[in-house]
Amino acid sequence: MNTIPFDTALQICQQIRQQNQRRLLTYHGLWCWGCATFTKEAQQRCFNSAPDCRGCAQVNKVFDKKVSLTPQR
């Protein structure tokens, strides 16, 4: 598992939150809503709950998919 840079995690988080705005009555939609509602700053969000920014399963999944699609040299 790769460490996710904070700026990258924040960008992915924002993309996921936009997607989940239309799905508020789903598990992931409620998760995003709660995270955004109860945290006032990005440094408090779920993805930043671990030192390597690997706290939110939704952010981790998107990041890992991007990393696996990146060609290795």
Give a structural overview:
- The protein has 73 residues and is an all-alpha fold.
- The protein has one domain (6-67).
- Helices cover 55% and strands 0% of the residues.
- The chain has helices at residues 6-20, 27-38, 57-69.
- α1 (6-20) packs across α2 (27-38) and α1 (6-20) packs across α3 (57-69).
- It is globular and about 40 Å long.
- It starts with 5 loop residues before the first helix and ends with a helix.
Tags for this entry?
73 residues
Strand count, sense and barrel status of the largest sheet are:
none
* Cα-to-Cα separation, first versus last residue: 18 Å
Q: Report mean pLDDT, rounded to a whole number.
A: 86
Q: Tell me the overall shape.
A: globular
Measured by DSSP, the beta-strand proportion falls in under 5%
The poorly predicted ranges are: none
